[in-house]
Amino acid sequence: MEREELTTQDVKTYPPAAPVPATPRFGSLAGSLIEINRLSPDAPVSPPA
Q1: Angle, helix 8-17 to helix 19-39, in steps of 10 degrees
Q2: 4 phi and psi, to 5 degrees?
């Protein structure tokens, strides 16, 4: 397999496109953590001795 050369245009195109796939991923992660914390709010806390 031959690798393509990385051009200046590729470097200029990537940073604005990077948030597009990251937004739903981080949004779903945040939503999952919020729902887990809503259903069992004291789970990370150890019970009193």
Answers
A1: 30
A2: -80, 155
Give pLDDT, residue 34: 92
Instruction: Quickly list DSSP for 1-49.
Output: -PPPPPPHHHHHHHHHHTHHHHHHHHHHHHHHHHHHHHHSTTTTSPPP-
The whole-model pTM stands at: 0.53
Angle at 44 between CA 41 and CA 49, to 5 degrees: 105
Residues 6+ away with beta carbon under 8 Å from 43: 36, 37
